[in-house]
Write a structure and sequence with these properties.
Blueprint lengths: L4 E11 L3 E12 L3 E5 L6 H7 L8 E6 L2 E2 L5 H7 E4 L12 H11 L4 H14 L15 H13 L5 E5 L7 H12 L4 E5 L3 H7 L2 E6 L2 E7 H5 L2 H6 L19
Helix pairs in contact: 3-4, 3-5, 4-5
């Protein structure tokens, strides 16, 4: 599979009960980009991300990863190319030990034991969690769980990282370490989050969703310096772009 594009065309999705979560969403992401997806609660961020690896299928429109159309016959290839990191790490960690969690994907690919071992240790080293290999995941801190969840994705050698609210429930130190970790990845990254300061740190491009539609798509600084757009989308400027509440000067 080539992995130079992610292309979404006129994507629509309606949940049972008639809630229109996505309405005509279209965009194109090229290899190596880091793109933020922002919007208020209910804007459609998580629903969009779940279409990128086939957890949800379009009601109308299409999603293409490289030269592969996301559809039931292509799910195996799509999920090898797209690594999805869920909002709650506990959704990804279910084995007795960290090592077994990270090894689960490569083992299911039928890889030889030596290659599985190499992939697991490389992934754990990358996220700084090799010392956790024998720990039960339920005894890890929030930041440790987040790192191991990413390792489970990296062990599959994906072309694309998709992250849903990756800094939620992290303390300030763990959040900063996580952002620095993401800086080192050369993967294409798509990050859906309410943490707009993290988007400033990591993403040169931002897509704004509101009411299931793309209302803006452009350079991150340009998006965050448009007060009318932010107000219409029920967003506020990142904290470090706001004026000091005491002296009124830019922070």
């Amino acid at each position: 599979m080539t992995h130079h594009i992610v292309e979404v065309q006129d994507l629509n999705y309606t949940y049972p009960g008639g809630v229109h979560a996505l309405q005509g969403v279209s965009f194109r992401i090229v290899h190596g980009e880091s793109v933020g997806v922002v919007g208020a609660n209910g804007a459609g961020k998580s629903t969009l991300l779940r279409h990128l690896n086939g957890y949800l299928m379009p009601v109308q429109g299409s999603v293409r990863i490289g030269d592969c159309l996301v559809a039931k016959p292509t799910l195996r290839d799509v999920r090898r190319a797209v690594g999805m990191v869920f909002q709650d790490p506990d959704d990804q960690l279910f084995m007795p030990t960290v090592y077994e969690d990270v090894a689960f994907g490569p083992l299911n690919l039928g890889l030889p034991a030596a290659e599985v071992e190499a992939r697991v240790m490389q992934a754990l080293d990358t996220v700084g969690a090799a010392h956790l290999r024998d720990r039960p995941p339920h005894r890890l801190s929030g930041g440790e769980k987040r790192a191991v969840a990413i390792a489970t994705v990296l062990s599959m050698a994906p072309d694309l990282l998709v992250l849903d609210e990756p800094t939620s429930n992290l303390d300030p130190k763990a959040r900063r370490q996580f952002i620095e970790l993401l800086r080192t990845f050369r993967h294409t990254k798509i990050i859906a989050t309410h943490d707009l300061d993290m988007i400033l740190d990591l993403c040169e491009r931002t897509i704004v969703l509101h009411g299931g539609r793309v209302t803006a798509d452009g350079p991150t600084l340009q998006i965050f310096n448009d007060p009318e757009l932010l107000m219409r989308s029920h967003l506020e400027k990142p904290l470090r772009m706001q004026a000091c509440p005491v002296c009124g000067k830019p922070t």
